[in-house]
Amino acid sequence: MSEEAQRLQKIIAQAGLASRRGAEELIAKGRVQVNGQTITELGMKVEPNDHVEVDGSPIEGREKLVYYLLNKPRGVVTTNNDEKGRQTVIDLLGDVSQRVYPIGRLDYDTTGVLLLTNDGVVANQLMHPKSRVDKVYVAKVEGIATDEKLAPLKHGVVIKGRKTAPARVTIERVDKDKKTSMVRVIIHEGRNHQIKNMLQKVHLPVVKLTREQYAFFDLIGLQSGEYRKLTGAEVRRLKAEDYKNYRRK
């Protein structure tokens, strides 16, 4: 067995076909074949040149795992393909040859930190609710923000029948002449339009929204639309789940 050999369920998860647990279920159900042989027992290790199929479809050549940090601009969709022909975050990664995909999403008009990878294990780890990864947003809102107005967000508000987890909220500044405010909100959930819906709930409609931090990643050194490859230390930190130790107080 070579040093490059990896567990079968990890290979399936890295291909983005399922989470690690989901890959184990695929194997147990007899839906995975290695070199033409159906595998049902967990723990098998696979060599780089072994032929792996799931439901009869081969896992394409195992690409090198890559990880990128993007400062997403406004007016770009967080998807790999857009049926309306709009620019996507993938379009911005011009020199990336691997087929990467975004971890989570940002709205069309929301800017800021976005991670992209082809590592399904890390992606699922970060997006799993139990990971409670901090997402730090700064929102420009209509209206004068006060501690009293924002208090419900610190306890959770009901949106579409579900109560949000308590958020950490601070007022950055208030412009009484223009009747606008800047508010910092830290959450670990990831519902659609969550920050906008939360602030709308307390009568502070969002005008502009930026995600300034995701886990321990921020926008320092990246202009709008720019991206960079993660360092080896950053990747190791993600895989070790060290990001939990970088939660903002």
TrEMBL record:
The keyword Isomerase applies. InterPro entries: PsdUridine_s_RsuA/RluB/E/F_cat (IPR042092), PsdUridine_synth_cat_dom_sf (IPR020103), PsdUridine_synth_RsuA/RluA (IPR006145), PsdUridine_synth_RsuA/RluB/E/F (IPR000748), PsdUridine_synth_RsuA/RluB_CS (IPR018496), RsuA_PseudoU_synthase (IPR050343), S4_RNA-bd (IPR002942), S4_RNA-bd_sf (IPR036986). Residues 6-69 form the RNA-binding S4 domain. Keywords: Isomerase, Lyase, RNA-binding. Its EC number is 5.4.99.-. It comes from the Bacteria. It holds the Pfam family S4. It is an enzyme of class 5 (isomerase). One of its GO terms (biological process) is enzyme-directed rRNA pseudouridine synthesis. GO terms for cellular component: cytosol. GO terms for molecular function: lyase activity; RNA binding; rRNA pseudouridine synthase activity. Belongs to the pseudouridine synthase RsuA family. This is Pseudouridine synthase.
